[in-house]
Amino acid sequence: MKSHEIDYEILGHDMQIVEVELDPGETVVAEAGAMNYMDDGITFEAKMGDGSQGDEGLFGKLMSAGKRVLTGESIFLTHFTNTGSGKKRVAFAAPYPGKIIPFDLSTVGGELLCQKDAFLAAALGTEVGIAFTKRMGTGFFGGEGFILQRLRGDGMAFVHACGTIIEKKMNNATLRVDTGCLVAFTTGIDYNIERAGSLKSMFFAGEGLFLATLKGTGTLLLQSLPFSRMADRILANAPAGGGSSKGEGSVLGRIGTMFER
Question: Rounded to a whole number, what is the distance in angstroms from the first to the last CA of the chain?
Fold first, then answer.
């Protein structure tokens, strides 16, 4: 199915919004709960499936929903359609600080592999599926389990990531990356997990036990701050019991917290 041709504008810097412009009859598909605002004349419907295969039937819809369960996402995608006259706009927001990256899938070989929670929205006709990693080691230690999201089509797709986004063009090259910093990559790049140096380096260097090794030719997206790392720092500095913390981690502040208890 040929994807709908949508226009868009990305607004903001650290907490971005992508505003999608729909002609009458055009549809954009998004993750459940991603919508920020929309014009009057746009209707939406939650569906089991991305709609890329037309009428998939009940079995096809259940298969699609089952795949999304494996990635930890909602079994439903929300379809937003311009049922009015004239151009209408609908906006989607990322769920945490970072950037929204637009991809014209027709310019990257029609396929993009990304983190299982990176997909935000795409033009109707884009297939939102899953890809099982090729190697057992990649599945166990890759940070994303056995599964990556696969986006296929010839239209616009939007993914989001945390922190600063780095785009790298690889030409028969090799790059080693912290597993949590990998956002997305195009076909032509082989993804594998390798041990991070010696045993001493693995346990005491602070870089994790394994690194992702990417080889080949294509486009690669990295994020400077994986959301899991940011969440760990927040939890580590959160006061016990939900109370306020004084001293911002200083020795005196910790002593004061002891007396508060």
Answer: 62
